[in-house]
């Protein structure tokens, strides 16, 4: 478990379109769906875009109806995160790297 500066529910839609093919009859959320939800919450909380995910580990399959929490701790431009069920079972861990203010994409002049 990480020492969290962010701890919020991470809702996942039970009718997410990826569930239909992943896997028929035994649906689980694809890792990319979990990461997309985590990245969105991290970006909203930190006010910066994620530019990379050097580490992501999936520990337990996540099925529709499982309630998840995102816990995250920021250290400079690195955010360590953990996804866990509401009863504390860790399902994924990883780290994200945020864009620095000076390396954000700029519009064309």
Domains, number: 1
Overall pLDDT score: 89
What letter string, H or E per element, gives the SSE order?
Answer: EHEEEE
**CATH architecture identity:** Roll
Strands in their spatial order, largest beta sheet = 1-3-4-5-2
Verbal overview:
- By secondary structure, the protein is of the alpha+beta class.
- The chain has one domain: Hotdog Thioesterase (Thiol Ester Dehydrase, Chain A).
- Helix content is 15%, strand content 35%.
- It contains one helix and five strands.
- The protein has one helix at 31-46, and strands at residues 6-9, 50-58, 68-75, 78-85, 90-98.
- The chain has a five-stranded antiparallel sheet with strand order 1-3-4-5-2, with helices on one face.
- A hairpin with a 2-residue loop joins strand 3 (68-75) and strand 4 (78-85).
- The longest helix is centred in the middle third of the chain and has 16 residues, at 31-46.
- The mean pLDDT is 89.
Quick tags:
1 helix; Thiol Ester Dehydrase, Chain A; 5 strands; 109 residues; 15% helix; alpha+beta; 5-stranded antiparallel β-sheet
What's the helix and strand layout?
Blueprint lengths: L5 E4 L21 H16 L3 E9 L9 E8 L2 E8 L4 E9 L11
Antiparallel strand pairs: 1-3, 2-5, 3-4, 4-5
Task: Give a brief description.
The protein is built from 1 helix and 5 strands, in the order βαββββ. It has one domain: Thiol Ester Dehydrase, Chain A. It has a 5-stranded antiparallel sheet with strand order 1-3-4-5-2, covered by helices on one side.
């Amino acid at each position: 478990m990480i020492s969290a500066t962010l701890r919020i529910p991470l809702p996942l839609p039970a009718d997410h379109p990826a569930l239909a093919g992943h896997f028929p009859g035994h649906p689980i959320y694809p890792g990319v769906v979990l990461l997309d939800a985590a990245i969105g919450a991290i970006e909203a909380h930190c006010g910066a875009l994620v530019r990379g995910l050097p580490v992501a580990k999936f520990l337990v399959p996540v099925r529709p109806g499982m309630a998840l929490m995102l816990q995250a701790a920021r250290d400079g431009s690195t955010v360590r995160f953990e996804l866990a069920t509401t009863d504390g079972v860790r399902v994924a861990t990883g780290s994200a790297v945020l864009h620095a203010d000076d390396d954000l994409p700029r519009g064309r002049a």
